Amino acid sequence: MFLSPDHELIRETARDFALQRVAPGVRERDEAEAFPHDLIPELADMGFLGIYHPTEYGGAGYDTLAFCLVIEEIARWDASLALTIASHTSLGSGHIALAGTHEQKERWLTPLAQGKVLAGWGLTEAGSGSDASGMKTTAVRDGAGWVLNGSKMFITQGSVGGVFVILAVTDRSKGAKGVTAFVVEAGTPGFSHGPKFHKLGMNSSDTRELRFEDVRIPDANRLGDLGMGFVDTMKVLDGGRIGIAALGVGLIRGALEESVSYAKQRSQFGSPIGDFQAIRFKMSDMDMWMEAGRALTHRAAQLKDAGRPHTREASIAKLYTSEHATKAALEAIQIHGGYGYTKEYHPERFLRDAKLLEIGEGTSEVQRMVIGKKLMG
Ligand SMILES: Cc1cc2nc3c(=O)[nH]c(=O)nc-3n(C[C@H](O)[C@H](O)[C@H](O)COP(=O)(O)OP(=O)(O)OC[C@H]3O[C@@H](n4cnc5c(N)ncnc54)[C@H](O)[C@@H]3O)c2cc1C
């Protein structure tokens, strides 16, 4: 696919930033499980924390394709940081952009899209993941406001976020139609987070449990109509899955580029290992996965930007790139031999990071359920 000059410029800007600023400390951040606080203002200055949100609300005013280009370039080096950007933009901020009133967007979306504050999005609970409608967190009417009680599990930006969109049950008798979204700001009394999760990968992204104990918020914090939280959540996830797909493309590209570079300089039996057909075939497959994954991802992005249905396309792109990111990382480790099994080289981190893409924002099984439902009606 050919990119417009504007999109080319965004890609080049993101590529330079990733090389100059993101790549150098990526192994240390992974090892230390350290959130890159210093990079957030730089991302904000470039407009990368609100790339497709309207300029009226502090965003850069581009589109989902531009978002995918940025996510791919960052994920090529640091999937944790790409996850931070993607979840902030498409989940927390995305839900406010989708369902917020003008006043709510001015109040919350503007600082989020400007990158002054990071967003979190709380759907998952300890007992409800794939079947999110089984959530237990409640919001109960209390005079002019609401009182929230419950908890949310595995929330990205859990301790570094300032604005959270939280899904809660407002009418248990209505099932999924009794779920409503609310904005809860960090620092609201009764709202706290748990300790850092030590994860397999995505180590420098922040993942926490969120807790709500008699958290009082005004009705002005209700996002969207009463009972529409779950319907809006499905739309938010359609957009979020495009971001995860772009993350997968970046990881496949990382695995491929690291492999090509290593295969050129590593010699065995008197030849660079890249001269062996067995190694070339692995890299050819990775190249094909990258191109196919990028085409699927950009197609889903363009459908979203055109305001056309994209649930199936977002699921297909996410499913394809996430499963192939894991495969590509495994092949990259194989190509690196014993060195690939060490933390001296990138591929082992690519593998640990890629696995999350098959779980977050709907597991691979859930994506197949979404696609299957579209097929069977
Ligand atoms: C690092 C990280 C960051 C995350 N960030 C966020 C966030 O910011 N906000 C948020 O709300 N959530 C977040 N999550 C949660 C994530 O979306 C869930 O973990 C995911 O949706 C799966 O839910 P679960 O973990 O409860 O697994 P479960 O739903 O318990 O699934 C367990 C297994 O059963 C399978 N399964 C379940 N139902 C079916 C079925 N009907 N048919 C076939 N197989 C099925 C699943 O595919 C999976 O293999 C994050 C998770 C992680 C690990």
Description:
The protein has 377 residues and is of the alpha+beta class. The chain has three domains: 109 residues, Acyl-CoA dehydrogenase/oxidase, N-terminal domain (Butyryl-Coa Dehydrogenase, subunit A, domain 1, Orthogonal Bundle), CATH 1.10.540.10; 109 residues, Butyryl-CoA Dehydrogenase, subunit A, domain 2 (Beta Barrel), CATH 2.40.110.10; 147 residues, Up-down Bundle (Butyryl-CoA Dehydrogenase, subunit A, domain 3). The protein is 53% helix and 15% strand. Helix 1 runs parallel beside helix 4, helix 5 runs antiparallel to helix 6 and helix 7 packs parallel to helix 9. Bound molecules: flavin-adenine dinucleotide. The site of flavin-adenine dinucleotide has 21 residues, from strand 1, strand 3 and helix 11.
What's the SSE blueprint?
Blueprint lengths: L4 H18 L3 H7 L6 H7 L18 H14 L1 H21 L2 H12 L5 E4 L15 E5 L2 E12 L6 E7 L9 E7 L5 E3 L13 E12 L3 E2 L5 H37 L1 E2 L2 E2 L4 H29 L5 H30 L6 H11 L6 H13 L1
Parallel strand pairs: 1-4
Antiparallel strand pairs: 2-3, 3-7, 4-5, 5-8, 6-7, 9-10
Bound molecules: flavin-adenine dinucleotide.
The site of flavin-adenine dinucleotide has 21 residues, from strand 1, strand 3 and helix 11.
